[in-house]
Amino acid sequence: MNLSAHLRPAIFVLATVTSFAAQAQQPQPVQVTQPDAASLRVRIYNSSTRPIAMQVENLSTATLILNETHRLPAYGTLLKFNTLPSGRYALTLRVGPDRYRYTIQVDNKAPGAATIAVRETTTHRVENGLAAL
């Protein structure tokens, strides 16, 4: 009786389950959550330690409000929109070849009492690395 023929399917299943478990433990490269009515929490996991670029732009005036670059394996920040005037803003993230863009609508009825609505507009990988934010 050929024992390896009986073990091969079991080893394949074990390897597949192990592979899925390892993938499940790895965090997504970019996580954006809204902890309150006027803030975004950004977490970036950068296993390649390639440059991380993060920008916040006022889309009405084409003004950069935030422009940061990091080379850390993990980076997180809390972006507060409660002091910004009402309008549309864009949060753009670049982690290696991956690009993420979120549109934020700020409704600031009273100073310090802003609410935001967030929509992810693009998430994609750029293979040639030439795309600009």
Provide structural commentary:
By secondary structure, this protein is of the alpha+beta class. The protein has one domain: Immunoglobulin-like, CATH 2.60.40. The chain contains 1 helix and 8 strands. A 5-stranded antiparallel β-sheet has the order 4-3-6-7-8, with no helix packed on it. The radius of gyration is 21 Å and the shape is elongated.
CATH fold assignment: Immunoglobulin-like
Q: How do the helices and strands follow one another from N- to C-terminus?
A: HEEEEEEEE
Strand order of the largest sheet: 4-3-6-7-8
On the 0 to 100 scale, the average pLDDT is: 76
Helix content: 10-25%
Q: Can you tell me the CATH class? A: Mainly Beta
Proportion in β-strands: over 45%
Gap between N and C termini: 61 Å
Number of extended strands: 8
Structural class of the helices, strands and pairings?
alpha+beta
> Main β-sheet, in a few words?
5 strands, antiparallel
Q: C-alpha Rg, in Å?
A: 21 Å
Q: What overall geometry do the principal axes of the alpha carbons give?
A: elongated
Low-confidence stretches: 1-23, 126-133
Keywords: Signal
Signal peptide: 1-24
